[in-house]
């Protein structure tokens, strides 16, 4: 959730000063910096972890009800978050709020 909200806040801060496309350039720079930081900052996995990582297939993981509940919860939270943050600017721009997007 932080990434989606952070991208919207970054775009909202940059858009009045610059063109809206610069928000995408700034977001790409932040993502690239985070990826480089993760690549060099995170510890390397052990050899045992690399060989056993593909042992469980995707279909086998979906057969576990405990994991499916977590996936459904995450999907529901994302659906609510995404629809709310896509709808909210249009609602707040209309009367009676009349706020700028």
Description:
By secondary structure, this protein is mainly α. It has helices spanning 2-14, 21-41, 47-52, 58-62, 65-93. It starts with a helix and ends in an 8-residue tail after the last helix. The model has no long low-confidence stretch (mean pLDDT 80).
Short description:
It contains 5 helices and no strands. The chain has 101 residues and is mainly α. The chain folds into 2 domains: 45 residues; 44 residues, no CATH class.
Based on secondary structure, the structural category is mainly alpha
Strand content: under 5%
Helix content: over 70%
Tally of discrete structural domains = 2
- H and E order: HHHHH
Draw up the topology in text.
Elements: H1 2-14, H2 21-41, H3 47-52, H4 58-62, H5 65-93
Helix pairs in contact: 1-2
Key features of this structure:
101 residues; 2 domains; mainly alpha
